[in-house]
Amino acid sequence: MGTSRPFVSENKDINKLVQWVIRHFAPINNAYGTSLRELGVGKRSIRDSRQQQGEITYRSLENSEGKFLQPIIMHNGIAYPLLTAKANEHVNLGIKLLFDTFEAVPSRASESNVHGGLLKIADAQTLGPATPAGDISVSKGTGKMMIAVIAGSDLAGTITITGDTIDRDTGVKTVGDTDTIIVDAVTTDGTTQDSNGNDVHKFTGAYITSKWFTGTVVLSTSTLNLSDVDVYHVSFEQFGDTPRIMITTFDVNLFSTNIAAEFDAYIHTIHVTGSKCNIHNEAELHLGADGETAIADRYWRLRQGNIDDPIDGRTDGFWVDVHYSNSPVYVEDVTLKVWGKQIQILEDREV
Measured between alpha carbons, how far is 336 from 117 in angstroms, rounded to an integer? Predict the structure, then answer.
């Protein structure tokens, strides 16, 4: 039990997860040699060769008797199990999850936001303690707010958001509630456009509220001087606040009625840490300018797998933007599916 042995796995999904961690947190040449070691001893840490730089930590689960059960990866406080070949038959990697949507005849030249969306409600505003900056006032539906700090002179301080909030569990409204966001740097807005002029969102270091605001909302500060601030409503699917979720596959089936049909769809994920969030385009599917040229009266199966993006449903989530660019749209019978899995240990066994 006290000897070291290289990490091995017969489960391809586990290998993908390990490779993802290595690629993002510990870029090393030898993934399964001496760099990743499993120590069959409880209460011991197992680390990669760059742990001295704080890139990733591996440790072992224990039962109530302190016996070694299996190694796991710890990422943002979430435990992702690493299965050895011996443990493989006793532990299930995950429970599959499916989110699907059907549109028989989409609206002309429309955009459908599935399971959430991002909507700009204030553009290029100033925010500061006094004139000429002052406060920002917006009117919005119900949900969280995202703030992109594009430019400013004083960038260390807080933004206070004041307005009515809705409790996401009970639906009870609190009048005149507040939320505080800590600001320490500008946001990088890396949003681009596809061939049909549709936004493909990407933000690094944006800011997000912890509460759901509704109606008139005021942003104020006594410490910041910001010359360019964009304010958004943001909604996203959180898998019922479930941790250890991995988005795996984006799948669409549709029918084109004309060679001019255009279809563009994007999965966007949002990862939240404290007051900050990052938004990425994880996968995309196209028919037309950015994909295969449409054929009249034909079905199309569009799919992107191996996405393997882990999210924590307690804070993170996803949504899908679907664009139908023509009028008429020339696309019918659209079935859209997002597959994921919850990484879950079903039965603990000693190894």
Answer: 16
